[in-house]
Amino acid sequence: MPGPTLTDIARAAEVSTATVSHALNGTGRLGGATRRRVRETATALGYGIRRTAPRTRTLGIAVTTFPTAWNYTEIAYFSRVVTAATSAAHERGYALTALPAARAGDDSWHTLAVDGMLIMDSPRGDPMVTALRARGIPLVFDGAPGDPHAGDHWVDNDHEATTREVLDHLAASGARRIALQSGNGDEHYARTVTAAYTTWCAEHGADPLVVPFDVTDAEGKAFDALLRGPDRADAVYAAYDPGGRQLLAAAARLALRVPGDLRVVCASEDPGYALTRPPVTTVTLAPERTARAAVALLVDLVEGRAGPASETAQRGPVVVPAALVPRDSSRAQPAAG
Amino acid sequence: MPGPTLTDIARAAEVSTATVSHALNGTGRLGGATRRRVRETATALGYGIRRTAPRTRTLGIAVTTFPTAWNYTEIAYFSRVVTAATSAAHERGYALTALPAARAGDDSWHTLAVDGMLIMDSPRGDPMVTALRARGIPLVFDGAPGDPHAGDHWVDNDHEATTREVLDHLAASGARRIALQSGNGDEHYARTVTAAYTTWCAEHGADPLVVPFDVTDAEGKAFDALLRGPDRADAVYAAYDPGGRQLLAAAARLALRVPGDLRVVCASEDPGYALTRPPVTTVTLAPERTARAAVALLVDLVEGRAGPASETAQRGPVVVPAALVPRDSSRAQPAAG
């Protein structure tokens, strides 16, 4: 079954065929609303559905949590996923297109030339996912999708178990008031880590202390209130890569010793945390394993070897083990205060 | 000026318009020769020239030296260029498509949807470069192109100066018979390093000893003949990343001490060479600086900020400094034998 013609789309959208052509090709001087309406009409009519598209032998990868101009490749986790995914794609004869974060906020998804897409940390209501699903592009998620559908495929760590392991580790090291630095996005990772932390606190009769992550806060000023006073936190689990350095900066400014006054654990793939003073205990999410598993699954989907929803139960989400790498920043200490 | 129509191409290639459509879209059951002929005709007529193509906001990157199924991302230099180029592209709002090496051997270049292309280690007679030049796609080379044209832009190290620096370093460490492991491809890097070595040998009255690099020779058996007998080499400069490990393996097998019997220097970006026994002296080509300079130049070209040939003389090729990182494998020793 061929896709709709320009005439079909023009009739449905009540515009000229020239306008349709401009809207789909990104040319001309259309207003954003018209362009979007034409593309949405085209998508609704099945334009771009893969059954008629030539194979590009290209896979796409993107982080869709924040569709703004931040550079996710500066975070070691994402950089290592992209690097390993490129290698895994090449092994299978596929090119890999890494999209900038801001692309998640525009409508280029309606025409992006890929055979399949690997989406990292997809939030609820992700417009890219909606567009790619409508086009029938196979998707694999790194991190459970915000809006999972029956038949979705994803690769993830068990963030609940990992968060509990970190909190137990900090409690065993003598911490009494453990705070969490978590994300403020609506993606599975931030929600799951925060929920696991809140549950753990309730089980241990502790008040939850959550500090939102801010990538621009290099000096960790967001921790100042938390780290002062008689009830100050004596441990923090930073769920994002720069958090460990932010905490070391805050501790230095407030004259707190790590780990004597403040225990620190950070989820990070940055080998530099072995060289800080003191070296920081990290959680590694094993990005290379995740990337390789996700690409293998995506190529299976693209080439028709992984089944639709009915077979998904057997394949299930792929769970990649995370690992705690203990270093001096969370060495056992007598409890503070 | 619009590009040629399918009818124009069909007439020139003496085939039906359906055949043209199949050839350009990669569909149907055409023979390879017909497909290639139609694409070449289309390119000759100006099909795919950028003046009519929508902006994809995508840059491409590829290594074209060997158009086979080797995985260049397993070599630290290339992997780090791709990673840094991705980051630099994203900073400017561009996606980056990394193509597998084998793609250099097919004809997908005639339709690849990129605004500009970064080509690493392009050999003489590179068919991809010919196709992309015909389409008017801006190109930047990492490593001088095998067939430079007036107005070409590239970023490179000064491989002649670096090779001489390595050879002088080995001579100063007491080496008398210095061999080179170089490439057997027809790209600028291998040719320049080999020529600089041969010239240096002539200036020093030494016989050149060149061993071709073979990525599959993990045990360095290619060195066996060179490292035996009274006239054996007492130093090797390995111009490719795995060469240092191949040399350590060969030395262990032949019971040669490094650096006592054999001095080793390797061009590599692999931090693992700081941890081998002994640590290996490396030459770093500064891939991140090269990648960032190349992407900045390519985006300037794509966006019309870098001029055609007439302005090139001012911009010239961008030269990125390489650096020798001395370690134990080339520590000064009394000359052998």
Automatic annotation (TrEMBL), chains A, B:
Domain HTH lacI-type residues, every copy: 4-58
Pfam families, A to Z: LacI, Peripla_BP_3
SMART domains attached to this UniProt entry: HTH_LACI (SM00354)
Membrane-traversing stretches: none
One GO molecular-function entry: DNA binding
Superkingdom of source: Bacteria
Keyword Transcription regulation: yes
Keywords for this protein: DNA-binding, Transcription, Transcription regulation
Designated name of the protein: LacI family DNA-binding transcriptional regulator
Protein species of origin: Streptomyces longisporoflavus
Lineage, top ranks: Bacteria, Bacillati, Actinomycetota, Actinomycetes, Kitasatosporales
